[in-house]
C-alpha cells in the first residue's frame, strides 16, 4: 500500500520532508517502490530478522505533524513511515511485527561457545581447548567491532528519562568495551567505572553483554597483576551487588569465577 516515507533532511531544516512510496511487506523484508505498477523501480529494501524492531504510532508525533508514524529499525536502515489514518498505521505496525516474530533468534559466536562450555563444563580439558581455539572468549587489547551478544536494533527508548544520553544498544556496547580498555592507562578510573555501572543500571538489555565483556577481559589475561585487571574485577564485583545477568549468563559467570 501507499505510505509516506521520511526523506533525510538537511540538519538545518526542521520541517518534515516526506515522499509517497508504494510499500510491499514480504515474509523476509519491507520493500518500497516508486509506484504501484508491476514493473516499478524498487527503491529500497529493509531485511527483517529477529533483532529488528517496530515503534508503533505515537499520538505526540500526530499532534506535531498531522501524520501517524511507524518506525522500523533494521541492521543498516531505519524507515520512518507516515499515514493520515491511525488504523492504517496500526495495521502496518502489527503486520511488520508479525513477520519479525516468525524469525528464528540470531545466535552470535559467543553465545554458541557459552553453550559449548556449558555442555562440557565437567571436562576441564575440553573447556581449555574451547578457550584456546576461540580468541573471542579471551582477553584482548584490540577493539570490539560488534557486540558479543545479539542486541535489538533501534534507538534506545526515547521516552525514558536518563541522566546520560544514549544512542543504540550496539553503540553503547562498543563504548563500554572501549571504556574497559582505557582503564589500564587511567590515573583515576572512578568516572569510567561509574559510567559503566550507570549504563548497566539504566539499560537492562545491555546487562548480559556487559557481564560477557568483563568475563572476556578477565579470562587468560597476559598480566594478571595489572591495575587494569584489578579494575575489571572490581567492576564485576560491583555489578554482582547491583544487577545480575539472565539465568544463562549467571551460570556462565559462576563457571568463570570457579575457573
Describe the structure.
By secondary structure, the chain is an alpha+beta fold. The chain folds into two domains: 2-101, Roll (PH-domain like), CATH 2.30.29; 109-258, MyTH4 domain (Serine Threonine Protein Phosphatase 5, Tetratricopeptide repeat), CATH 1.25.40. The protein is 42% helix and 15% strand. The protein is built from nine helices and seven strands. A seven-stranded antiparallel β-sheet has the order 4-3-2-1-7-6-5, with helices on both faces. Helix 6 (190-202) packs parallel to helix 8 and helix 7 (207-217) runs antiparallel to helix 8 (227-242). The longest helix is centred in the middle third of the chain and has 16 residues, at 86-101. It is elongated and about 65 Å long. The mean pLDDT is 90. Residues 1-101 form the PH domain.
Amino acid at each position: 500500500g501507499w505510505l509516506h516515507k521520511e526523506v533525510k533532511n538537511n540538519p538545518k531544516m526542521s520541517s518534515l520532508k516526506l515522499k509517497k512510496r508504494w510499500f510491499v511487506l514480504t515474509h523476509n523484508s519491507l520493500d518500497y517502490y516508486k509506484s504501484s505498477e508491476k514493473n516499478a523501480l524498487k527503491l529500497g529494501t529493509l531485511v527483517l530478522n529477529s533483532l529488528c524492531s517496530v515503534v508503533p504510532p505515537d499520538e505526540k508525533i500526530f499532534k506535531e505533524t498531522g501524520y501517524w508514524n511507524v518506525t522500523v529499525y533494521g541492521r543498516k536502515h531505519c524507515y520512518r513511515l507516515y499515514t493520515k489514518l491511525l488504523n492504517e498505521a496500526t495495521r502496518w505496525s502489527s503486520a511488520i511485527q508479525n513477520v519479525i516474530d516468525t524469525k528464528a533468534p540470531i545466535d552470535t559466536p559467543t553465545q554458541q561457545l557459552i553453550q559449548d562450555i556449558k555442555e562440557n563444563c565437567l571436562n576441564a580439558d575440553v573447556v581449555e581447548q574451547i578457550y584456546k581455539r576461540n580468541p573471542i572468549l579471551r582477553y584482548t587489547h584490540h577493539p570490539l567491532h560488534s557486540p558479543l551478544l545479539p542486541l535489538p536494533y533501534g534507538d534506545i527508548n526515547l521516552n525514558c528519562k536518563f541522566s546520560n544520553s544514549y544512542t543504540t544498544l550496539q553503540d553503547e556496547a562498543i563504548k563500554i568495551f572501549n571504556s574497559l580498555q582505557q582503564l589500564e592507562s587511567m590515573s583515576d578510573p572512578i568516572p569510567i567505572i561509574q559510567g559503566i555501572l550507570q549504563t548497566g543500571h539504566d539499560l537492562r538489555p545491555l546487562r548480559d553483554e556487559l557481564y560477557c565483556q568483563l568475563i572476556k577481559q578477565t579470562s587468560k589475561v597476559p598480566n594478571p597483576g595489572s591495575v587494569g585487571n584489578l579494575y575489571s574485577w572490581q567492576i564485576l564485583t560491583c555489578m554482582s551487588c547491583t544487577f545480575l545477568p539472565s539465568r544463562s549468563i549467571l551460570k556462565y559467570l559462576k563457571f568463570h569465577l570457579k575457573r
